[in-house]
Amino acid sequence: MEILVFLVPLALMLGGAGLVAFLWSLKSGQYDDLDGAAWRAIADDDPPPQEAPAKR
Amino acid sequence: MQVTRDFSHYVRAAGAGHQHIDLAVEGVHCAGCMAKIERGLSAIPDVTLARVNLTDRRVALEWKEGTLDPARFIDRLEELGYKAYPYETESAEATEVAESRFLLRCLGVAAFAAMNVMMLSIPVWSGNVSDMLPEQRDFFHWLSALIALPAAAYAGQPFFRSAWRALSNKTTNMDVPISIGVCLALGMSVVETVNHAEHAYFDAAIMLLTFLLVGRFLDQNMRRRTRAVAGNLAALKAETAAKFVGPDEITQVPVAAIHPGDIVLLRPGERCAVDGTVIEGRSEIDQSLITGETLYVTAEHGTPVYAGSMNISGTLRVRVSAASEATLLAEIARLLDNALAARSRYMRLADRASRLYAPVVHATALITVLGWVIAGASWHDAIVTGVAVLIITCPCALGLAIPTVQTVTSGAMFKSGVLLNSGDAIERLAEADHVIFDKTGTLTLPDLDVTNAADIPTNMFELAGRLALSSHHPVAAAVAQAAVAKSPIVGAVEEAGQGVRAVVDGVEIRLGRPSFCGAEALVVGADLDPEASIVAFSKDAEKFILSVRQGLRPDAQAVIAALKDRGIGVEILSGDRAPAVIAAAQALGIAEWRAGVTPADKIARIEELKRRGAKVLMVGDGMNDAPSLAAAHVSMSPISAAHLSQATADLVFLGRPLAPVVAAIDSARKALRLMRQNLWLAIGYNVLAVPVAISGVVTPLIAAAAMSGSSMLVMLNSLRARSASREIV
């Protein structure tokens, strides 16, 4: 059962990493436009380079 | 005089030498629109950011400072086929957005903690029935505490704060039993962990928070979305005024940038966007949005004009005054304040339920503790059982029962064109059993229409419509619109206060007052609508008269019939004169009506109905309706309503039909039924679970399964509210 000493912190670190990632994505505005995000996934995003919409 | 547009009021600095503006855009609804707009705007040199937000229907734009005029973006969007206007975030909306983000953060933290605590709880549950060592169990419990305690302290904030607010006001709400349940569950679990006990309830407490936060977030998100759409609609009305910046130079500026003392120009056919006094010019103005009166009022030097009035015939110069200086508005504001103060705070269903629920549950827990002590159990065991009762009865399903239905219903209403201003409006609307309609602008459409178009030969009507394009007079505009005229007649001459004339194929045609067209004879003999404005059209010797008036909303009759079918009383209270009101009442089959009523009379009538026990739904649009909207049990106004009325109404409906009124009542009634069902489901769950808890055989596994099961059931039942708005009239 000594393996728990490694496995438990590892599991918690992975969970914590997920939480940090979520909080970061929230802060950077990725949840501000969920409807738009759904469409952007299938949008045609190869305009000529000089016309490329500025990305945040 | 040169007219320029000035949007500098909406532009803000975005740092690093860039400027930012937000535009509300109409008609964006798919990926194609987004790509088209973003590419179209990015193609303008010096634009550094063009990003569409499809949820809020807005575009955020940034460009290098001083290189571009924001008016150019609006023109560009117009070329692309979208109507756009600068948008200014109101503080109310900013608060909603911040609140929504905070709830999402809390939900993220709670969900993370719930998953990890569950990961530690499952080994304990399976270990308890097999070969887990007590030291290992303690280790897992301590780890759970390490995760659950800080997470609950953070994610529980929305509930703790609300419970604290309620307690310090010496009332109670649903958040009080929730907070007590969560705190006790966590506290007891820590004590049990210290005592090396078998059971700890960290998972139950944190899962409870997660479920409740889901409901709370969905509710908040819906509210935020409604507010964003309402904000866009307000922005797209593009209320501007022509402000004098020099003796002969005017600039079209947004209303927000106009200050008392400024002088604005009001041209014929324009709606006044500010309050003020006429200092030059002479005209007739239509004040129906303010007083309900459809006859025009003469305006000359010294006449006060109010925001919302329409200028009919001549050009006016208006000196802007502060809103409070206008006497009529001050009177309305006073009545409105009184009505708001007298509005008895409505007891929401959720609060009523929790008021009954909390004492019963807490008493049951206490009796359980005492009962076990009397039966000979130790104080420790008795208290553990008592706390288990509180955990199992913690109103998870009860806390979700109402917000989830509200969220689904407001979503359904949103789709059928009704925006909710206040959360408890659904419950109050469901109870309404008497509807009072205002006439002007509510039962009738706000704009004018030609009523006898069928009596006139089509080619003549078309010609009249084309001629009407050369005039700014609202009646002419109505003729032009009714005739679907596109190409104006070259060389048309407008004679102020008389009409328009032009020569076509060597024949003179005229449109205007009957005397202007030599058609008095037709008017004298004819049986005419007393409410309509009569204009004449003549082509040489052929003469016709056109009757122009505000028409009833197309489906008004069907809506009134539908309301009566549902057993709802209907009446009209209008500030307009009796003949106009009688005509509308007869056309719609409404027996009860009152004409020429003042705002104070309207309130008196509502109070009278209240005393008889009726729950009144007031539907009105005018400034004069605002106090009665506040005084009624629940209120609605059309999107074309005066600002004050729209802000006061509980619900706002979009578009020309009146059908949303019935659709909203139907959805609200269905929603109330579902809320009650959900409450019974939650109570039924408690009836089953409480005896188990009292007998002291509850384990954390049973608690977790029972609580999530009942929450799921309630959420699924709430989804049935989605179909509520499909059948309209």
Residue-averaged pLDDT of chain B, rounded? 84
Low confidence ranges of chain B:
724-729
Number of helical segments with 4 or more residues of chain B: 25
Task: Indicate the radius of gyration of chain B in whole angstroms.
Answer: 32 Å
Output mean pLDDT of chain A.
78
Topology:
The complex is a heterodimer of chains A (about 55) and B (about 725).
Chain A: H1 4-27, H2 34-40
Chain B: E1 3-5, E2 12-15, E3 18-25, H1 31-42, E4 47-53, E5 58-64, H2 71-80, E6 84-86, H3 91-128, H4 134-155, H5 157-168, H6 175-194, H7 202-236, E7 240-244, E8 250-254, E9 263-266, E10 276-280, E11 283-286, H8 288-291, E12 297-299, E13 304-305, E14 310-311, E15 316-320, H9 327-342, H10 349-374, H11 379-393, H12 396-415, E16 418-420, H13 425-431, E17 434-437, H14 439-443, E18 444-450, H15 458-468, H16 474-482, E19 493-495, E20 499-504, E21 507-512, H17 514-517, H18 520-525, E22 533-539, E23 542-552, H19 556-565, E24 569-573, H20 578-588, E25 592-594, H21 599-611, E26 616-619, H22 626-631, E27 634-638, H23 643-648, E28 651-653, H24 659-694, H25 700-718
Parallel strand pairs in B: 1-8, 17-24, 17-26, 24-25, 26-27, 27-28
Antiparallel strand pairs in B: 2-3, 3-5, 3-6, 4-5, 7-8, 7-9, 9-15, 10-13, 10-15, 11-12, 11-14, 16-28, 18-23, 19-20, 20-21, 21-22, 22-23
Helix pairs in contact in B: 1-2, 3-4, 3-7, 4-6, 4-7, 5-6, 6-7, 6-11, 7-12, 7-25, 10-11, 10-12, 11-24, 12-24, 12-25, 13-24, 15-16, 24-25
